[in-house]
Amino acid sequence: MPPFDPSYHGQSISRVKSIASQMSPPSATSFSAEVVPQAPEDPLFGLMAAYRADQDPKKVDLGIGAYRDNNAKPWVLPVVKKADAILRDDPNLDHEYLPIAGLVPFKTKAADLILGADSPAIKEKRATTVQTISGTGAVHLGALFLARFWTGTKKVYLSNPTWANHNQIFSNVGIPIAQYPYFSKETKGLDFEGMKSAILGAEDRSVILLHACAHNPTGVDPTMDQWKELADIMRQKNHFPFFDCAYQGFASGKLAQDNAAIRYFVEQGFELVIAQSFAKNFGLYGERAGCFHAVTGPGAEAESTITRIASQLAILQRSEISNPPLYGARIASTVLNDSKLFAEWEDNLRTMSGRIITMRKELRAKLEELGTPGTWNHITDQIGMFSFTGLSEKQVLKIREDAHVYMTKNGRISMAGLNTNNIDYVAKAIDKVVREVQ
């Protein structure tokens, strides 16, 4: 080996510096505005931020889809408090990982709840359940599964309008989106003929996303007879039902009434999937407790088919979140697996749904007493958390500016934001804007 020559190495360093000085400086980022444009703010969370920044003492939040009590405060369900106390006092409680598919006692009861404990899908072992990050995670897992494995028409039909996040979720996994008419601006009810026509005209074996109850954002649901007619059309076209259920028990106060459409489709032998949320009906908004259910059609191969589906769902879940969160599932499971707590939960559901129904009646009555132009029966005809008021975007912006009443631009209001302290104020504000802004 030749001896070390410091002068040689000094020359080498000088040459490197010389070459470097001739090169253009490195780019500050690989993610220029052309590559990564500024995304628009989420409309709902932007509305929440605007409401929080408003200093007017009379401001009213009718935007956020979360239950509030008569004092406009979040309500922790009494039964949830009891379940929480039970968990805190359990000396064997730990914080280990859940299995990939989630907490078994929770999943079992969640399936019973959404399908019915006597469901043929459960009895015939042709259903599987994966615990998810609330309803959003369930829709995403279902979309991801269909993007990977659905062999029919790779297109999902969404109601017009629908929950805004549906569009983003399916777009992000590469499933093209189409729409079927749903809300009639004339009647402020269901455009059933338009809905049927679009589903009948869709390509065979398309995915049809359906809101099981308390349609978001309109609060308009098909009747049971209409659900049966839709099932006939979907069977004729070999469409694949994807039910999204965020409000079971919260809508009507009756668990069996709010899952009736799902039970009917399963009894009719449909192969389908369901996204189920426990955010609204347990008040576990931030705990992200939900489930995704897959049901295959009856037949000799049904059990082996659902086993294969479950295996692939587990792979997808593992790659996305590894395993689901624990606390919310434990709370719900504690209630669902205890008959006394379950009965108390049903009573809590009646409290929430009953207060919202009362607010619907009172708002309609006050608008009619004021002689507000138009008809307002749709307020009580609709169901669940939301009501499509029929206010235009121009009226929505005006009522926010003048009265500090916040709602989404399409005129959707959260009925839970109304209470005996603000309903007169809101009714008068609506009356004023309807008269002044056309």
UniProtKB/TrEMBL annotation:
GO cellular component terms listed in the entry, alphabetical order: cytosol
All copies of domain Aminotransferase class I/classII large, residue ranges: 58-430
The keyword tRNA processing appears for this protein: no
Enzyme class: transferase
This enzyme's EC code(s): 2.6.1.1
Chaperone among keywords: no
Domain of life: Eukaryota
TM helices/strands, residue ranges: none
Pfam family, one: Aminotran_1_2
Cofactor (UniProt): pyridoxal 5'-phosphate
Keywords: Aminotransferase, Pyridoxal phosphate, Transferase
Catalytic activity, as annotated: L-aspartate + 2-oxoglutarate = oxaloacetate + L-glutamate
A Gene Ontology BP annotation from the UniProt entry: aspartate biosynthetic process
InterPro entries: Aminotransferase_I/II_large, Asp_trans, NHTrfase_class1_PyrdxlP-BS, PyrdxlP-dep_Trfase, PyrdxlP-dep_Trfase_major, PyrdxlP-dep_Trfase_small
One GO molecular-function entry: pyridoxal phosphate binding
Family designation: Belongs to the class-I pyridoxal-phosphate-dependent aminotransferase family.
General remark: In eukaryotes there are cytoplasmic, mitochondrial and chloroplastic isozymes.
Assembly mode: Homodimer.
Protein name according to UniProt: Aspartate aminotransferase
Organism this protein belongs to: Anthostomella pinea
